[in-house]
Specification:
Number of domains: 2
Pfam family, one: TetR_N
CATH superfamily of the largest domain: Tetracycline Repressor, domain 2
Organism: Amycolatopsis magusensis
InterPro entries: Homeodomain-like_sf (IPR009057), HTH-type_TetR-like_transc_reg (IPR050109), HTH_TetR (IPR001647), Tet_transcr_reg_TetR-rel_C_sf (IPR036271)
CATH class of the largest domain: Mainly Alpha
Keywords: DNA-binding
Low-confidence stretches: none
Number of strands: 0
Shape: elongated
CATH topology of the largest domain: Tetracycline Repressor, domain 2
Protein name: AcrR family transcriptional regulator
Order of helices and strands: HHHHHHHHH
CATH architecture of the largest domain: Orthogonal Bundle
Distance between the termini: 61 Å
């Protein structure tokens, strides 16, 4: 097994252990056992539990970013928006532990918190690209407006994902449609629609 293959095995084992026990109760020995390696080999890859968790968190952020990179070329901004929402909720559906790590758990360890902060910043930067074509009703600098939209979008999607976590009977397609109604079409347009 190569070093990178062993690292991936460790991260997979750590994800399972952290999911079962939480960060505080998870032990490095249990991660090593689950990965099928000795504890010294684990410490050779990750000298501390915080570094292991940070490595796992970084891996999850990379996977989420990769899901956005696989989107087809959109016809317009709305199609890009819907495809991005679907990609995010699809990733959440397949990676529940990753979603909890990135969005639902507040890290207290400074090293883990820094990885978390960088991941959030990358998400904001990526999302800001979605809003470049949205017209502004004020003379706010375009980049600051895009960042504001991205942070608002990120918070809203995370809140919807948290709600969906407790309402798993709702299919992803419905969650994507409702999220699009709220965040793309907007409340004003919804309130102007005639009753069916």
């Amino acid at each position: 097994m190569t070093r990178s293959e062993r690292r991936e095995r460790i991260l997979a084992a750590a994800a399972a252990v952290f999911a079962e026990r939480g960060y505080d109760a998870a032990g490095m020995r249990e991660v090593a056992t689950r990965a099928g390696i000795s504890t010294p080999v684990l410490y050779d890859h990750f000298p501390a539990k915080a570094q292991l968790y940070a490595g796992l968190l970084q891996s999850e952020v990379d996977r989420l970013q990769a899901a956005w990179g696989e989107l087809p070329e959109p016809r317009d901004a709305e199609e890009l928006f819907v495809a991005t929402v679907d990609a995010i909720f699809g990733w959440i559906e397949r990676n529940q532990q990753g979603w909890r790590m990135i969005f639902a758990e507040a890290p207290s360890d400074p090293e883990v918190a820094e990885v978390h902060r960088r991941g959030q910043a990358r998400a904001t930067e990526k999302l800001a690209e979605l809003f470049a074509a949205v017209p502004l009703s004020t003379d706010l600098d375009r980049s600051r407006a895009n960042e504001l939209f991205a942070e608002t979008y990120k918070s809203a999607v995370n809140a919807i994902a948290g709600w969906w976590w407790h309402n798993r009977d709702l299919p992803r397609a419905h969650v994507v449609a409702l999220t699009t109604d709220l965040l793309w079409h907007g409340l004003r347009r919804l309130t102007l629609q005639e009753d069916p």
